[in-house]
Design goal:
Strand content: under 5%
Number of helices: 2
Largest sheet: none
Radius of gyration: 16 Å
Oligomer: single chain
Shape: elongated
Distance between the termini: 13 Å
């Protein structure tokens, strides 16, 4: 469980770095609208993936703790 938790934390940290890059694109008014919209869609997909990973880990952790 500790290794899984570490992996999820690393994934979320990397995702946050990626989201910061996407935010720079989203906030850049000089970029074409299609690029900004694509960055918004990617931002939303990334957040959903991060939330799913955290939720899946938390569910597995609850199941693990319920066994004890």
């Amino acid at each position: 469980m500790v290794a899984g938790q570490r992996a999820v934390r690393e994934y979320v940290a990397a995702g946050e770095t990626y989201l910061a890059c996407l935010s720079a694109v989203i906030d850049d008014a000089a970029r074409p609208t299609e690029h900004r919209n694509a960055a918004i869609a990617e931002h939303n997909r990334t957040v959903s993936g991060m939330e799913a990973a955290a939720n899946d880990f938390n569910e597995a952790l609850r199941a693990f703790k319920a066994r004890e």
